[in-house]
Amino acid sequence: MLNVIALVGRLVADPELRHTTSGIATCTFRIAVDRSYVRQGEERKADFFDIVAWRQSAEFVCKYFRKGNLIAVNGSLQTRNYEDRNGNKRTAYEIVADNIHFVESKAAASSSAGGYAAPAPAAAPAPARAAVPEPVSYSSGSADDFALIDDNEDLPF
User: Fold this and answer.
1) Above 50 in pLDDT, residue 102?
2) How far apart are CA 4 and CA 147, in angstroms?
């Protein structure tokens, strides 16, 4: 059986660190992932996924990520049955994170912390480059640069 999820999206709220009664760190957060297909004349839609991180991963997310940050999550999909306050049976679907990674630079992350669709930062001027020698052009070679190989003999390689 295979149960693997890989997502890249933006946090819709600041993650919150909690601890179980036995002291294990846990963090739940939600990310928005843009759909790859957009119908002409419509806005791009997004799907929202609930993520659960445990132990060091939970502490990592709560320490370094904020609302609007781009995050990559690898994990597995799990279901959980529970009963709500009215006594109705419910099923929760959540991704249990195995690996969590940064996707953008710290500078880009701090500029996008204001919301989900923050504008891209302005491009900085390119630094001056040292003179690089021109690459060798093979189109200027002559036919004398190549040796003929006799088809009737074994090839040398």
Assistant:
1) yes
2) 54
